[in-house]
Write a structure and sequence with these properties.
binds adenosine-5'-diphosphate; Succinate semialdehyde dehydrogenase; Ald_DH/histidinol_DH; 7-stranded mixed beta sheet; Ald_DH_N; 21% strand; Ald_DH_C; oxidoreductase; 13 helices; 6-stranded mixed beta sheet; alpha/beta
Length: 485
């Protein structure tokens, strides 16, 4: 990896605790999903290291908490600047470990950095309140204070942004944090830590525990069981979210969970079909379909169904699949072979139950993990693909006849993260946006996430919101003070 970087010192293979790089007896391997090449051998920590990281975060807490919001903002701004200056190197590291095309990786660096910038600004604006008293001899106030030591457990699909979306509000609020990045993408996280040191973020404020899949489970238990840890923020599968929620019950931790999605994408008969196709491509095929807000089910009105399918299939021919390091590639590999197998299983199940393959439908020959952008028509609710998240580049299309049916089909899911629809009718836009049982609704757009908007889901898609002016509250406790005069 070093040979690809302008600043090779951003490539780190050791974990990061209390401002020190930490090795381990045995390491675990990180592979490039495009080539299967071994690209790094990273410290494989365990529960005892997790205890050390918690202790470091606890030790660093008083001094960090006692800085003013403005002082923390200045340090964070420096971190933002360094991340931004290192965009090219961070994107390269990300593409090599995660697979997404280089331009898309650079986009994620900007997106990830935007949380650091935003919450650095918000650090100065934390404010309590003074309610009017109803007792003449007493006065009341509400203080907002940092919750304390926090934990972030993050996934591989956004190796930088899922970390900064948690760490930035935590730091801005005055909290310290222990991060357990995904075992498939630890290198982006470690590069961020190197930049945090350079920005002057004090020792122990940020700690990174790298570990393989098995050790991650053990570390997770330690982090959840610790009474010192007051908040756990997790992004990943609903299955693991449930486990962590259970593990946090004994110590009654505050939880933020960003879990699975199963986003519907509805095209009404009054939609601008060309715009809907552009939105569908952006929403479905970004990151090879591996985001929790990717459209996973397309409901298209019967009147415009054939037209939409034809234009969608045409647009897909412009997607260039390949190694993300090659110029012009717009779709990289899937993260691992198990991900490809899931896409294959969903496609095979749909076809066996009567779906029509419009385009794609098989792996490419570029490597083990590449899958063609795929469209299936004639899909119905009995098929696996309409019931669970595919997390791959497969677009199933289901026709519908009226608004009530479309909304009912869209809401028929235990998940409630993102949803999308296309219509030009203002009445319909209000009614459908209100009726969709989702935390986020994109109307006439397939891209909705940024640092200003509250990101999060309802039902089994999770708890809490990240980013936005609301994202900071997650890391603040309210304290009510009553003063007798
Ligand atoms: P994905 O479906 O995105 O691979 P996972 O939910 O499996 O997501 O993993 C997301 C993160 O959760 C990763 O950092 C992974 O190491 C971690 N993880 C997975 N299982 C556990 C567990 N039982 N305890 C703690 N962390 C876990």
């Amino acid at each position: 990896i070093r040979s690809f970087l302008k600043d090779p010192s951003l490539f780190k293979e050791q974990a990061f605790i209390n401002g020190q790089w930490v090795g381990s007896k045995e390491n675990f391997n990180v592979q490039n999903p495009a080539t299967d090449e071994l690209i790094a051998s990273v410290s494989n920590l365990g529960p005892q290291d997790a205890e050390l990281a918690i202790a470091a975060a606890e030790k660093a807490l008083p001094a960090w908490r006692n800085k003013t919001g403005k002082e923390r903002a200045h340090i964070m701004r420096k971190w933002f600047d360094l991340i931004t200056e290192s965009t090219q190197d961070l994107a390269t590291i990300m593409t090599l470990e995660q697979g997404k095309p280089l331009a898309e990786a650079a986009g994620e660096v900007a997106y990830g950095a935007s949380f650091v910038e935003w919450f650095a600004e918000e650090a100065k604006r934390v404010a309590g309140s003074i309610p009017a008293t109803t007792w003449g001899d007493k006065r009341m106030m509400v203080l907002k204070q940092p919750i304390g030591v926090c934990v972030a457990i993050t996934p591989w699909n956004f190796p930088i942004a899922m970390i900064t979306r948690k760490v930035a509000p935590a730091l801005a609020a005055g909290c310290t944090i222990v991060i357990k990045p995904a075992e498939l993408t630890p290198l982006s996280a470690l590069a961020l830590a190197e930049l945090a040191i350079r920005a002057g973020i004090p020792d122990g404020v940020i700690n990174i525990l790298t570990a393989d899949a098995n050790q991650s489970i053990l570390i997770g238990k330690t982090l959840c069981a610790s009474p010192t840890v007051r908040h756990l923020s997790f992004t990943g599968s609903t299955e693991v979210g449930r486990i962590l929620m259970g593990q946090c019950a004994p110590t009654v931790k505050k939880l933020a969970l960003e879990l699975g999605g199963h986003a519907p994408f509805i095209v009404f008969d009054d939609a601008d079909i060309d715009a809907a196709v552009i939105g569908a491509i952006a929403s479905k095929f970004r990151n090879s379909g591996q985001t929790c807000v990717c459209a996973n089910r397309f409901y298209v009105h019967k009147k415009v169904h054939d037209q939409f399918v034809e234009k969608f299939a045409q647009a897909i021919t412009k997607i260039k699949v390949g190694n993300g390091m090659e110029p012009g590639v717009t779709q990289g590999p899937l993260i691992e072979t198990a991900a490809l197998e899931k896409a294959e299983k969903h496609v095979a199940d749909a076809i066996s139950k009567g779906a029509k393959l419009v385009t794609g439908g098989k792996p490419t020959t570029q490597g083990k993990n590449f899958y063609e952008p795929t469209i299936l028509a004639n899909v119905n609710s009995d098929m696996l693909i309409t019931q669970e998240e595919t997390f791959g580049p497969v677009a199933p299309i289901i026709p519908f006849e009226n608004d009530e049916e479309a909304v009912a089909l869209a809401n028929n899911s235990p998940f409630g993260l993102a949803s999308y629809f296309y219509s030009r009718d203002i009445g319909r836009i209000w009614k459908v946006a209100e009726a969709l049982d989702y935390g986020m609704v994109g109307v006439n757009t397939g891209l909705i996430t940024n640092e200003v908007a509250p990101f999060g889901g309802v039902k089994q898609s999770g708890l809490g919101r990240e980013g936005s002016a609301y994202g900071m509250d997650e890391y603040l406790e309210m304290k009510y003070v009553c003063v007798g005069l």
